[in-house]
Amino acid sequence: MKKVLITGASSGIGKALALAYAKKGFTIGLTARREDILHEVAQECKNLGGTPFVYKLDVQDAEKCKSVAEQFMKDAGGIDIAIANAGIGGDDGLYTGSSEQINSILNTNILGVTNTLMPFIPNMKEQHSGALVCISSVASFMPLPYHGGYSASKIAIRMIFDSWRPTLQKYTIKAVSICPGFVDTPIVKGPARRFPMKSAEDAAERFVKVIDLGYSTYIYPWPYHILIWIVRLIPERFYNWLIKKMFGKPIT
Ligand SMILES: NC(=O)c1ccc[n+]([C@@H]2O[C@H](COP(=O)([O-])OP(=O)(O)OC[C@H]3O[C@@H](n4cnc5c(N)ncnc54)[C@H](OP(=O)(O)O)[C@@H]3O)[C@@H](O)[C@H]2O)c1
Question: Which protein residue's CA is at the shortest distance from atom 20 of ligand 1?
Answer without folding.
Answer: 187
